[in-house]
Write a structure and sequence with these properties.
single chain; alpha/beta; 14 helices
Length: about 350
């Protein structure tokens, strides 16, 4: 591993606080409702309690970090739209004209789009590593140094958001061609054939899907990414957006806040992050399971259960932001509902 900030952050991550988790479970069980009747919403609050190291859970300040980057592999005809769409949508994040921006406005979350590697300059915050990755079918998508810089950019932005008050982070991305890079990364890390983990993305035809699978096969054969080294995988067949999001997962864990996985692309980045830094896994929460074929495979590999099953595949962090109101409502019950004792009702008991 290289990169001083990355190494420092990996070393700083603590396991969640089991005492805080236990106290949160005890509080849920004291509330006048059938035990665990809010299911995964209760589990989510308990998880956040452990992460925040207190049963007094606070997610009042929320932020969505969207990594925006272009991918050289679009030269291979693996997308329905052109590379120019990345910049167009990225700028829409700043004007409430993109889905994620609308959802953030409605949920009270701060939206933080980041240009980590777009081909065009925009008004989006410029943290550009390069003007897009290189075509991975002709050589590595980026250098290892560039991959580490992208990861560390994600770490810095996660730290910055937490320092400014965010208590939970959501992850999103924008980058034409990034279902191709995500499928390539997942193919290597899960040791699956590209055809098993590659979907139609934003509406490819059957012919387009075959081109996409072929491009991934050629990239893997040429670059021979090392499955035991996730940074090598990201650098050879990944994207700046994926590497940046991997950094957000690691940086959020280092800063002691939960980080929400969005869909397939975000999950691919989460998988890479865990392979780089296993300690960040307990800090991750799954929002939904994407319609992409490998989405459920990745969540299973991470042992994460999604809160939503809406067959979404939009990206941008849309699914991650959509669970914010669910968590807020769960916390309203957790913090406001009367207890069995206050209602003079005999408490439910855990039965074998």
């Amino acid at each position: 591993m290289t990169g001083e900030l990355l190494q420092e952050t990996v070393r700083s991550i603590l396991p969640p606080d089991k005492a805080a988790e236990k106290a949160a479970v005890t509080h849920w069980d004291s509330i006048a409702h059938p035990l665990h009747s809010l299911g995964r919403l209760e589990d989510a609050v308990v998880q956040i309690a452990g992460i925040q190291r207190t049963p007094k859970v606070d997610i009042s300040e929320k932020a969505l970090i969207i990594m925006c980057a272009d991918n050289g592999v679009v030269e291979e005809g693996v997308t329905q739209t052109g590379q120019e769409v990345t910049a167009q949508v990225a700028e829409n994040f700043l004007s409430d004209r993109a889905t994620a921006a609308i959802l953030c406005r409605e949920t009270g979350a701060e939206i933080c789009p980041v240009d980590i590697g777009m081909a065009r300059d925009t008004k989006v915050r410029n943290c550009k590593i390069a003007r897009g990755t290189r075509n991975m079918t002709k050589g590595p998508a980026m250098t290892r140094e560039e991959a580490v810089r992208a990861i560390e950019t994600g770490i810095r932005i996660a730290r910055e958001k937490v320092s400014s008050g965010s208590r939970i982070l959501a992850t999103g991305e924008m980058g034409i061609g990034n279902t191709t890079t995500s499928s390539a990364v997942v193919s290597v890390l899960l040791e699956r054939d590209p055809a098993e983990v590659t979907g139609r993305g934003a509406g490819l035809s059957s012919e387009g899907l075959e081109r996409k699978i072929s491009a991934i096969r050629r990239a893997l054969a040429l670059n021979r990414p090392d499955a035991s080294d996730a940074i090598d995988v990201l650098s050879k067949v990944g994207g700046f957006d994926l590497a940046g999001l991997a950094g957000v997962f690691i940086g959020g864990a280092g800063a002691g806040v939960p980080v929400v996985i969005d869909g397939f692309i975000s999950a691919a980045a989460a998988l890479a992050a865990v392979r780089i830094c296993p300690g960040c896994l307990p800090y991750m929460m799954a929002s939904h399971v994407s319609g992409e074929p490998a989405a459920s495979m990745v969540l299973a590999a991470l042992d994460k259960k999604p809160l939503l099953t809406c067959e979404m595949c939009l990206g941008e962090g849309s699914g991650a932001v959509m669970i914010f109101p669910l968590l807020d409502m769960a916390l309203k019950v957790y913090n406001s509902m009367t207890t069995f004792e206050e209602d003079h009702i005999e408490a439910y008991q855990h039965l074998n």
